[in-house]
Design a protein that fits this description.
Length: about 120
């Protein structure tokens, strides 16, 4: 079983920066694909970024060039550095972890409880 806990959310002005971190606990986490998803009020949960066990990254088009995902396997953390934030980035951000089998089978894997990011003047 994998447990995830996000931290670092908050309120930031448009154009500002914010960093999120997710601490993971469990076994064989280095094999997992880790990622960040978000859900805006009234919207569906959507992909923000993922990073595989071999450090291949994927980004949503809306955040590419502004957000950077990274992982620290020694600390079992996955981080999301967000720059040039826009009001439309406002959402609850969720950490996600999936095994290679869950990725292959398009399963959702494990989720953290989420952290609120609000971008407003």
């Amino acid at each position: 079983q994998v447990q995830l806990a996000e931290s670092g959310g908050g309120l930031v002005q448009p154009g500002g920066s914010l960093g999120l971190s997710c601490a993971a606990s469990g076994s064989m986490l280095t094999l997992y694909t880790l990622g960040w998803y978000r859900q805006a009020p009234g919207g569906q949960r959507e992909l923000v970024a993922t990073i595989t066990s071999v450090l291949t990254t994927t980004y949503a088009a809306s955040v590419k060039g502004r957000f950077t995902i990274s992982r620290d396997n020694a600390k079992n953390t996955v981080n999301l550095q967000m720059t040039n934030l826009k009001p439309e980035d406002t959402a609850v951000y969720y950490c996600n972890a999936r095994t290679p089998v869950q990725m292959r089978d398009h399963e959702y894997g494990y989720w953290g409880p989420g952290t609120q990011v609000s971008v407003s003047a």
